[in-house]
Design a protein that fits this description.
Layout (H helix, E strand, L loop, with lengths): L6 H4 L3 E5 L4 H12 L3 E6 L8 H4 L7 E4 L5 H11 L3 E4 L6 H6 L1 H20 L6 E5 L25 H19 L5 E7 L1 E3 L9 H11 L3 E3 L5 E6 L1 H17 L6 E4 L6 E3 H12 L5 E3 L16 H7 L7 H16 L4 H14 L1
Parallel strand pairs: 1-2, 1-4, 2-3, 4-5, 5-6, 6-10, 7-9, 8-12
Antiparallel strand pairs: 9-11
Length: 352
């Protein structure tokens, strides 16, 4: 069967990525470079230390512009200089709990950052396809037991979720109001996991830090259910979507869900128990019963559209995804070439 992401399509393509120094952006940069694309990245410095970007030496593989998405003029200059064919917008303030602490910054980055990207695209010739990466949390959460579909109402209890819903609305407005030559879509993914994520207040990084320090994992909401998926799953979707936008245009210029199969939407506690087992951690975990800001309890995505129209399907079930996480962090602990480890995992994923 013909793969939905065709390496020969990407060979020689000029791709502009915002947020390339982050966890997902670094994985995407490595994948694109491996397929022969010429990548220009625009982002702030890596958000964590250590970081996937530095550990895998992504800066050696892409043209890297270290700058702020809130600086429109610098963004515009960098995008025009890149002479890109495709734009993938991933720069964001991505953490729910940080959005409670810094709501103004969250809206400035996630909403006006999107405006700046689309304005820059609008005045840059040659760009044919744009994918704006938002989140599964952009939906008005009703704690349904079924998955949200792309036409469901947008919303957001916390500033992060709300700001991403706003980013969706901005994209829809720009698509209808201004664009005729560039085709624009939004991509909504679930909770991504993978090697190289060291962010705070994320379950997998919190677990890995606890394992390495020989202490209990502290979890806030053990029964909350999330659509967990390996980071390569949504990236595969973004690449497939960008390729379709470039090749076929209008039919794909809409919103798309990229989540796991239904049986991989699991409670937090299940994830921690499986990860403890796979990592060989004997300390276990404990419940943090303190007071915490509101977070959704139940969240799933319906990905029927991506499966039917893009031919995209999850490749790795959750057990395999967790094994890949453990494999990556053990390789890092053993001082292996982490860029090579990532490429091996990407090749393994594509062989599926």
């Amino acid at each position: 069967m013909k793969p939905i992401v065709n390496p020969s399509f990407w060979r020689g393509k000029k791709v502009f990525i915002t947020g390339h120094t982050g966890f997902k952006g670094s994985w995407l940069s490595l994948w694109l470079h491996h397929m022969g694309a010429m990548v220009t990245g625009y982002s702030l410095q890596p958000p964590t230390s250590p970081s996937m970007f530095n550990v895998c030496h992504v800066n050696r593989l892409v043209k890297s512009v270290i700058a702020d998405i809130r600086d429109y003029q610098q963004l515009h200059t960098a995008m025009q200089a890149s002479e890109s064919d495709i734009v993938i917008h991933m720069a964001a303030q991505p953490l729910v709990r940080d959005s409670y602490r810094n709501p103004v910054e969250t809206y400035a980055i996630n909403v006006m950052g999107t405006v700046h990207v689309l304005e820059a695209v609008r005045s840059t010739r040659g760009i044919k396809a744009v994918v704006n990466v938002t989140t599964d949390k952009c939906y008005e959460n009703k704690e349904w037991v079924w998955g949200y579909r792309e036409h469901e109402a947008l919303g957001g209890y916390d500033p992060y979720s709300s700001s991403k819903a706003c980013s969706e609305l901005v994209t829809s407005s720009y698509r209808q109001s201004f664009f005729s030559n560039a085709y624009i879509a939004t991509a909504r993914a679930g909770n991504v996991i993978g090697g190289g994520d060291w962010a705070s207040d994320r379950l997998i990084p919190d677990c890995i830090r606890a394992f390495e320090e020989g202490r209990h994992v502290r979890i806030r909401n053990p029964h909350s259910i999330r659509p967990w998926q390996h980071v390569l799953e949504p990236l595969h979707g973004y690449l497939a979507l960008a390729q379709k936008l470039f090749e076929e245009g209008e039919p794909y210029a809409s919103s798309w869900n990229f989540g796991p199969n239904e049986n991989d939407a699991k409670p937090v506690e299940w994830i921690v128990e499986r990860l403890c087992h796979k990592y060989g951690n004997t300390e276990g975990y404990e419940i943090d019963a303190g007071s915490h800001p509101h977070e959704a309890n139940y969240l799933k995505l319906d990905c029927s559209q991506a499966k039917a129209k893009l031919g995209w399907h999850p490749q790795w079930e959750l057990e395999r995804a967790l094994e890949k996480v453990v494999e990556w962090f053990r390789a890092y602990r053993d001082n292996q070439d982490m860029g090579r480890v990532c490429i091996q995992q990407i090749e393994d994923y594509m062989r599926n």
